[in-house]
Automatic annotation (TrEMBL):
It comes from the Bacteria. The keyword Transmembrane helix does not apply. Signal peptide: none annotated. InterPro entries: Carb_Metab_HTH_regulators, DeoR-like_C, DeoR_HTH, NagB/RpiA_transferase-like, Tscrpt_reg_HTH_DeoR_CS, WH-like_DNA-bd_sf, WH_DNA-bd_sf. PROSITE patterns: HTH_DEOR_1, HTH_DEOR_2. Residues 3-58 form the HTH deoR-type domain. This is DeoR family transcriptional regulator. The lineage of its organism: Bacteria, Pseudomonadati, Pseudomonadota, Gammaproteobacteria, Enterobacterales.
Amino acid sequence: MTPSERRDFIYGYLYEYQTVSISSLVELMNVSHMTVRRDISALEEEGKVVSISGGVRLNNALHQELPWNEKARLHCQSKRKIGHFAASLVEDGQVVYLDAGTTTFEIARVLGERFNLTVVTNDFSIVQYLMNKPQLNLFHTGGRVDKRNHSSAGNIAVMMLKSLNIDIAFISTSSWDFEHGVSTPHEEKVLLKQTLLERSRRSILVSDSNKFGKYGMFRVCALEQLDDIICDNHLPENIIKKLEETNINFYPINV
């Protein structure tokens, strides 16, 4: 592996498992302790990770999301189950928005077998998948292309959303908690998601539990601005209880 490939591997591994020991990274990448320590130092300078005794953990303050292809390999079972449940909330004839993401892609897989629906998305992978489903009406927002995330954002996408009335919107995120709400490390996504909240009769956050407790620099909204949250059931018990005490419809999916 090149230094860049090693650091991408470490960041991707931490994105899934949160912490890892230096000795485990030495074994996983078949390199020396010194090489791993240099890679960790480089990632720490970028603000992506934090060194701990004998290892490293992901920095809860996210500075960058993983590319779409890497995210697609993580927590697949949780995403599929969340996707199936989320799709069951969609009624015939509705206008559905699918935010860019690998969990919303799982919703698209299920909705692709339905009839009498209109799907709007800013995700190119979702569009490509649904392109072969002629029974669905399909719209893409357009806008500046984010190649890492197979999506588009920016003012053009926002203008498109402002012209629509959306029945149900499934919103993705890289980070969320009670203190910071739904957040993102990318400024250009904020107005898009906020416009989506304004234009949708029902807004639903779909996320696996791995993303809870992380936060990005840019705040999208408070959790209380959402109608529903669909997540797997691996959140801490005190967090599940707190969510159930809010006015948000919380669905912990058994995984």
